[in-house]
């Protein structure tokens, strides 16, 4: 894939394999289960009142299986969720004033319902089959605001996600917060580069993408920790194998045109959000990344 800014946009293949009709991504259901559990903890980092129903019995069963392999997974998901929530609040708050939020690869995400605020439009981009299944589930939930987000069907293997977004009313010339949560590790490096480069060249310079990365050993299967290897095998068995990771996201972000970057390790995010640190979690080479061409100062509204 050419990265020349002088060429027209190419279709960016995310190598996405949609779930079968009537099902949802197994990892999405598992994540929803962890969010439901984290929401019930004393002094929760966030509250997702719909996660329990969206996870279903299968999602909770998968989370229990993962617990045996990665005991800190619930906290990891809670930290990731809360970190991104903070970033969204910052970008749509008075300090930045963004009026657009994009959930790219939305899955069973409920942020449009949880973080809605007057004057801010949420766009959920995902494969039509995934969106249809999510809508089927949310339609059965009492009080769920199904009109909270503009649903943007996108076949990532054939469509340019930014063109599809613009066709749905997204303003590429206005700054936006783009959430890309729990997706990059399932893609090839070329697809990761293509997505980030498309954001850098096709969106307003202050548009900021927030996403997570895992370390290279997890992807390559070279970790000496048996828990990591078992986790990889479980994810592979769910037909959603990990393909990409990095111990240092900065070089790739620079090469794709992003100049304002904040890469926070999960250890740092966990310490900030919970006041705890545990070396045995092995979060050192996993990052939460916020990147743009020219973003405002990254000061969280919650912490200001």
Structure in words:
With 304 residues, the chain is of the alpha/beta class. It has one domain: 3-Layer(aba) Sandwich (Rossmann fold). It has 11 helices and 7 strands. Strands 3-2-1-4-5-7-6 form a 7-stranded mixed beta sheet. α1 packs across α2 (51-69), α1 packs across α3 and α3 (73-92) packs across α11 (266-274). The N and C termini lie far apart (41 Å). Residues 1-22 have low confidence and may be disordered.
Summarize it.
The protein is of the alpha/beta class. The chain is built from 11 helices and 7 strands.
Secondary structure topology:
Elements: H1 26-39, H2 51-69, H3 73-92, E1 100-104, H4 111-114, E2 121-126, H5 128-139, E3 149-153, H6 161-167, E4 177-180, H7 189-202, E5 208-213, H8 216-220, H9 226-237, H10 250-255, E6 260-265, H11 266-274, E7 287-292
Parallel strand pairs: 1-2, 1-4, 2-3, 4-5
Antiparallel strand pairs: 5-7, 6-7
Helix pairs in contact: 1-2, 1-3, 3-11
């Amino acid at each position: 894939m050419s990265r020349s800014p002088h060429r027209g946009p190419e279709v960016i293949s995310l190598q996405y394999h949609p779930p079968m009709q009537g099902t949802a991504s197994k990892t999405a259901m598992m994540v929803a289960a962890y969010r439901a559990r984290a929401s019930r903890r004393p002094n929760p980092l966030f509250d997702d009142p719909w996660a329990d129903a969206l996870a279903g019995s299968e999602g909770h069963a998968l989370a229990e299986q993962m617990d045996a392999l990665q005991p800190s997974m619930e906290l990891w998901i809670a930290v990731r969720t809360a970190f991104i929530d903070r970033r969204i609040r910052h970008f749509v708050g008075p300090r930045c004033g963004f009026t657009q939020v994009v959930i790219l690869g939305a899955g069973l995400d409920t942020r449009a319902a949880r973080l809605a605020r007057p004057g801010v439009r949420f766009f959920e981009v995902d494969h039509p089959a995934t969106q249809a299944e999510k809508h089927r589930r949310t339609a059965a939930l009492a009080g769920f605001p199904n009109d909270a987000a503009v649903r943007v069907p996108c076949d990532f293997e054939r469509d340019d996600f930014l063109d599809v977004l613009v066709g749905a009313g997204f303003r590429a010339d206005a700054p936006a917060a783009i959430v890309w949560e729990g997706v990059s590790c399932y893609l090839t490096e070329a697809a990761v580069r293509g997505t980030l480069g498309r954001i850098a060249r096709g969106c307003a310079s202050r548009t900021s993408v927030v996403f997570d990365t895992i370390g290279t050993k997890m992807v390559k299967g070279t970790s000496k920790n048996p828990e990591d290897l078992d986790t990889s095998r479980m994810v592979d068995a769910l037909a959603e194998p990990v393909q990409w990771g990095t111990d240092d996201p900065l070089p790739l972000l620079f090469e794709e045109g992003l100049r304002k970057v904040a890469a926070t390790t999960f250890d740092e995010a966990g310490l900030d959000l919970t006041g705890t640190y545990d070396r045995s979690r092995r979060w050192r080479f996993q990052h939460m990344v916020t990147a743009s061409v020219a973003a405002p100062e990254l000061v969280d509204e919650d912490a200001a």
